[in-house]
């Protein structure tokens, strides 16, 4: 199983997080994270506090989406088999490699 780490740039607009945030989809291809429906890889998304990131494994192998060690906001999708989805709301601003 390949372990891929996604870099996300989280930008706080100074707004209070709410449930109306945007959903940003990242397609997990074999060995690549790409902006949904594109070949823009690796994906770097700018999101606001309250937005959600949705990872969809469209590859042929199992993958994970895991934050780097030492960051203040941590996520770990666990193993995502082909066609699996992981959704993570972001409630903090920062840069999350």
Characterise the protein shown here.
Helices cover 0% and strands 31% of the residues. The protein contains no helices and seven strands. A four-stranded mixed β-sheet has the order 3-2-5-6, with no helix packed on it. A three-stranded mixed β-sheet has the order 4-1-7, with no helix packed on it.
As residue ranges, the low-confidence spans are 1-18
Q: Please compute the radius of gyration using only Cα atoms.
A: 13 Å
Tally the helices.
0
- String of helices and strands: EEEEEEE
Spatial arrangement of strands, main beta sheet? 3-2-5-6
- Beta-strand content estimate: 25-35%
Number of distinct beta strands:
7
Silhouette: globular
Mean pLDDT comes to 78
User: What would you call the structural class?
Assistant: mainly beta
Oligomeric description of these chains = single chain
Helix content: under 10%
Please report the distance between the alpha carbons of the first and last residues: 20 Å
Largest β-sheet summary: 4 strands, mixed
Topology at a glance:
Blueprint (H helix, E strand, L loop, with lengths): L7 E3 L12 E7 L2 E4 L10 E2 L4 E6 L27 E5 L4 E3 L1
Parallel strand pairs: 1-4, 2-5
Antiparallel strand pairs: 1-7, 2-3, 5-6
């Amino acid at each position: 199983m390949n372990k891929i780490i996604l870099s996300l740039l989280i930008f706080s607009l100074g707004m209070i997080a709410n449930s109306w945030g945007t959903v940003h989809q990242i397609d997990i291809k074999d060995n690549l994270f790409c902006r949904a429906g594109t070949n823009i890889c690796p994906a770097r998304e700018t999101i606001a506090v309250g937005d959600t990131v949705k990872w969809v494994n469209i590859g042929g192998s199992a993958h994970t989406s895991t934050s780097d060690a030492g960051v203040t906001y941590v996520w770990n999708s666990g193993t995502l088999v082909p066609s699996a989805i992981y959704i993570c709301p972001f409630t903090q601003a920062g840069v999350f490699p």
